[in-house]
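Dig into this one:

. . .
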Amino acid sequence: MGFTGFPDEAFLYYEGLEADNSKTYFTRHRHLYEQAVRAPMEALAEELAGEFGQATLFRPYRDVRYAKDKSPYKTHQGAFVDVEPGIGLYVEVSAAGLYVAGGCYTKAPDQVARYRAAVDDDLTGKPLAAITQALEEAGYELAGDRLKTRPRGFDDGHPRIALLRHRSLYAGVRFEPEPWVLTGEVRDRVAAAWRAFGPLVDWLAAHVRGSELPPRR
C-alpha cells in the first residue's frame, strides 16, 4: 500500500507512551506501533527513496546502557537517509507532530576539525554562511551541538563565529499534528524540506565527511 499519511492512532500511541514508558504499555499497544507508526513511516520512506535514497528506520528501543534516563522506548519514530555516515536527511513522527531535518548529527573530533577548517576558510566558509542564512530566511531553524563560547584558536570577531561554535549542524522544521498530517500531503512537505536542506547536506558531505577515526569500544 502507498503512503496515505499518519493516522490519529500514531499520535495517541505516543501520548500514551510518554505517560507510561514501560514494557507493559509497549507490549499491549505494539499493534498500534506497527500499524499506525512503523508501517506508514516505511511507506513514506519508500515513496521518497527514488529522489533522496533509501531511508533507514530507527528501532523503537532506547540504548540505556550509559543513560541516566532508563526509559526503555523512544517517544518518536525516526528515519534517516545517510549521505555520509551521520550526515543526511531525517524525518520523525511523535506526539508533538512531525519533524523534518537535514545536516550533520555526529561530532567526532576529526569531523569537527574538518568542519571548523572549512568554515574558517573564506573559499568554503562564505558559501556555508550563505546557505544557512537562506535557510533561516526561509523559516527553517538551525540547530546542533554548539559551544557557548568561541572555540579555541578563533577570535570572537571572526565573521562566522556563530557557525564555528557548532560541533554538529542541521536545519529543521516542526509541524504540529494538523489535519494534513493525516494525509499524503506529508510526503510533499517532507520532500520540499529535504530539497531545501540539500545544499547544506551537500556542503557537509563534501567538507566534513564521515569520521575517519575507529569507533570507541
User: Anything to note?
Assistant: The chain is about 45% helix and 15% strand. The chain has a mean pLDDT of 94.
